[in-house]
Amino acid sequence: MSETESKKRKHEDEGKKCPFHSFVVTSPDSIAAAAALQGPLKQENLEKHVSLFSKEQTHESKAPEINIISTSDPFDTRMGSGGGTLAAIDAADSQNKCDKGSILIIHAGGQSSRCPTQMTLGKAWTDLPLATGECTNPTYILMESLSNMMSNLPNGSIVVAASDVILDLPIECPIDFEQVPHNKVLGLAIPAKLMTATNHGVFHINGSQSLSDDANMIHIKSADAFYQKPTIDHMRKMEGCTFLHENEEVAWIDTGVVIFLPDAADALRDLVKNELSIYSESGLRKRMENDGEIYNSEKEAASVLITKKLELYSHLLLAIPTVGAKATTLEEARLKAYLQDEANADFSSEELTLIFQKLSSFELDVCTVPGGSFIHLGTSKEMLDFMVNGSSIETQGVKRGNVAFRLSDHKHSFLNGVKVGERNVTMYSMIDSTSSPLGDSSIGTNSLVEYCHLEKSTIKVGANCIVSALRGSCKKIIDLNSNMIIQMLPLRKESEKVPDQYVVLYLGMTDEIKKHGKCYGKPFDELFQETGIESIDVWDSGCKKQYMWNAKIHPVIALEGPDYELDWEPFLWIHQYKVAGKDGFSDPVVKNSVKKWKAIQRLSLSQIQGNADASLEFIYRWNTLPKQVKSKVQYTAQNIKDILLSRRHEEVSFDFATQRLFGNVRQIKRTEELELGIEVFRDVILSSIRDSNFDVGSRAFMLWSSLCLNIAKMMADRDTPKPEHVCKYSVSPNFHRLDVAEIVNFQDYVALVDEIASAIIIAFNEFHRELVEDCAKYLEQAASNLTSKCVVSSIPPIETGKCSLPQAEVWVISNAPARIDLSGGWSDTPPISYEFGGAVVCLAVQINRRKPLSARCRRTRTFKGIKLTVESRDINTGDLISSSSVHVKKVQDLSDFRNPRAKCALLKCAILALKLVSVVSSTDTTDMDSILSSLLGESIGLEIISTSMLPQGSGLGTSSILAGCVLSCLGQCVGIDEVKDLPFVIKTVLNLEQLLSTGGGWQDQVGGLYGGLKLCTADKNVIPVHVHVEEHDIPAENISEINKRLVVAYSGKPRLAKNILQKVLRQWAERSPTTMRTVKDLVAGAHKCIDAIQRNDFKNLGQLINEYWAQKKSMAGENSGVEPIEVNKIFSKLIHEGVCDGATLAGAGGGGFLALLLSEGKSLRDAKTVLARDVDIDESTVKWYFCEICSEGLDTFESSGSEEFSLQWHCNKTMRMG
Prior knowledge:
Oligomer: single chain
Number of helices: 40
Helix content: 25-40%
């Protein structure tokens, strides 16, 4: 067994033991220290986040009780890092029940001026959202990693660490202290690149360095020297100071962790009790008592008595020699150098000599950790880069393979109505912009948003920003430019009677704090010159050091009223100035903003440090806000449930359920929020189906499908890899009855819901995007099935042969015009039509003087069963272009009726809609001949042919109108009298389209089966759908004018309405404010169109048609393909040139026919000429047709001869009879 394995085994056998009796965490001041005990150092938080304090760990460990001490320099007097260390030792020893117990001191840092957002609470509490668990921070990490690494630390030792670094230290092999003399002081060093080393302390270890051994092995080595911030040249001159590690030239840099073993620790204890007792609270009190002076406060006394800062490195460690120093320099010479060091100038030679004599007998060695890594969080930019890079997909964390610091880009946040860019981090924030009248919020690339609580507000965060602790509601857009820092902090109050006040810390990312440099990223002098702000506005009169540190630029505000309104007016000018410079100040709003900024109280960073209430901020961050986020999630879930069950037209967003699905790694994970969302779906769907509220269940199914599609897209965007092993699981429930709209079996739906929920969990575990997409498909199908329940009308049993039958071999022919929708389309589409109410205006039109759609049916003795044919013919000649036929001999031949792309699917559905065959199964081998014999009283076949003279996917209502033609001729051919009733045909077409699974509304069949101009409406909340048709007469002169102006052209691109339909239905299920406004405008536009036509106001009609086209595009949503590029060019050109007043694509859009309303005095020739002149428009694919209003709708008649087809069958009755 190797040495590494032996030590690792020993460490595991002993179990984790905490070597420290006391943890001392120092804070910038006493208020922050007290606040930390109520926040991160509270016992319940330590138990939750630090395994050392977990109940299981403390129960198993035999280690003594650990003291948690939160302190600051006594009386908030700055004593330096050495003075703070001695004060912490005294505080720990005074509370330690064990004599000389081991102490871990973690310094939270002083002013943190280079990272202002950490100034009030300290860098020790910089929150790090781990991808694998809860949030952590540098202090927790140091507690955990140093306790593990030093599990064998000799009792009585003292370890000092700085919290402005994050250390990744291997824990498998703890430091072996058994052979180490107790008079040693040990630094902790890791290998780092030379450029990094120039900003840190460097240990020089003489001799060759080899890191070929286990990277987790820790060695204690003698140090030849210790250099503070050496140059690269200096390091390279010192033999053994630099060496190669992973093909990089590196050096051993100091991590800020110093280990004083027992004898050296005793010396520190002795110093703080005697020579340096003034650097302890007890010693300082004694000095005050003996001073004889009268002070207003202990703080004032301490500030007078403490005249020198004692530093850990320059005053204490500098007195401790390395082996190299001992070997090359006599003690007398070392003392002389120590006394002459410029860092020690504040102390007298006597004081320094006392320190030197106490410490110089010890030896400074180094623990080298080859496998360790080191991250310094010195500046705001360094912290932001660490947070963003640590959570990015590209970097897979700060260091590849470093699991400990792989961060999450989203932790415990609720974002609603917020567009989030790439590579940013949000944690413990709640931003809800759904009820903001100013629109959605957005977070830019590489930005950090933490601890924000904004309701009814819109915030626009630029790139590379830090946004911390903003709270309240705002009536103006909070617009933050890129590279900005903003933080909101509570101020201390003298009494409870004083209203709560906050300071808004607002500055540029690159503003230098301790220099007269930049403000908001602009040089101060330039800012003053261009804004009218003066130096006296920012600094006190006579101030010599005019730095950002003491610049009073951070406004003090209050949150007003019950909504905690945040007044953003004093800040508006900053954004405008960053965007437009001095030119922006011509705007009166900007001028007023600067005026208000000048008028209100403002603080400097130095004043904020002394006046911010760290205690309130800790409570807000660690207690109040997390509870609010959790409560908001639960409230949102319950509210969504209420919206769905009560059928409210309110927006539903499941953003809360998806925000934490992804961490930094390319994987998806289950979350409480997602499971809560699934629970909402399950409850709503099953309760609604149980109570036959199928509309409610349909919306829930569609929303669940949208959620799955969004998750699948997120997985695709993050390039989620397929699992190494193939996931064989797929959603394939044997719910064949779900395919039949007439049947709802509750247990089938229970099984489907449970199946989908299980599949989603498996998809997450397997990182399987295709499985999530499968779930979406089945959920969408379930939504469609429930919608069908709300659309399908109950048709009483139909009897054939009730009227006289035509002779065998005689065609019964039904023809119909096409339709052009002028306004209101989509409002007729279920579920929109029965949930909101629909209204559509349609014109029945002939194309090239033909009624372009027909169907014919005949009884025939030439074959058995039913022969179905779908054909396409030339509208001018009637020549056959293409055809497709199916011979239905058995019931099973109809089983693919739900597939719109199956051969003759529409004709198959017509047979089912008229209930000639009631139930279809792919295994039903019943002969169609026996069924027809039973229906018609003789053994005879049927032949049904549908004919379209329009291109496929025309958008002119082709399939629905053809369905009406097929039902009419088929019904009359077999003696079904009801098909002579047009409302019955309209209702049955609706049923047929549900069978066909294309969905769709009722405007198509109404538009073509009724002649002329009609307003078609459906009442909301009436199930099943009932369509009302108002036929409107058009004066002859108006018809003539419309016929002159109305032009149609085939775009050359077919489209399947179902593709766009699904996008529309998903948007409708979500009920965004935009969608609701659009549907409302669609319905209103239909009534306006009728009025415009009747008033002969064609200019207004054109405008309404244009608005209608914009509404169609809005309904389909972005990237829907509803408006092809070439179509957009044609419309824009013709309208811009004044050739047409209105333009739209017929039907759903995406292709098909263009419908143009030409301007007064313009002709088709003018349109063609304009387009021909534009080289950017390819008119070759566009085919123009003559179009005119057809006053005649569906017409059914018998053929007079034995011909198989006649072009006359596509003429209106007047022309046909003439």
